[in-house]
Model the fold of this input.
Amino acid sequence: MRGLTAGYGGLAVVRDVDLRVAAGEAVALLGRNGAGKTTTLLTIAGALPIRSGSIAVDGRPAAGLPSYRIARLGLSLIPQGRRIFPALSVEENLTLGARRGAVVGTVQELFPVLAERARVFGSNLSGGEQQMLAIGRALMTQPRLLLMDEPSEGLAPQVVRQIGELVGRLRRERDLSILIAEQNLALALAVADRVYVLERGEVVHEGTAAAFGEDRALQRRYLGV
Done:
């Protein structure tokens, strides 16, 4: 992504953002509330129009394409708030996202609880189970790049740790590239190779996750932690 400017209506929320995710790499997008993290992910996924700049997947232009065509390039978004279908069962939620011969059982192996609750409506799942379902549904599209928007939101610490372990497993076993926007700094640093920090819609820092994790001054300056 180069020189991305995007937003809502006449308001530019992110401005002139450069960002890259390499094959098999996990990148964390950090910043305070309102910094532009969700706007960036929604724009990449085609849910918001791009005002200027470029987005490419393996050199293929993606900016301006409808979201279904961007998904076909190998991108899948796990939105903030999960957005599962509450009136559908777990199995129906997974099947709805299936593409290119994806098998529900493969996701159920990653999340045994989803197999146990296959016939349960999405509205009757706990927050952690709903997040697992949202991740599983995204995996049913067989993506190469997974966009994760605040996956730890509203979850208990134990579930957050499980999400972090899962991200690591997906990278090892499926060679997935991951771009994660996250407020939970510990989770972000645990799963990411590199970090970008947004402040008021602009990239103010880029570097390795290890270096950022050791720099308390940078964390206080940009994240207030």
In short: The two ends are 28 Å apart (CA to CA). The mean pLDDT is 90. Residues 157-174 form the longest helix (18 residues). The longest strand covers residues 2-8.
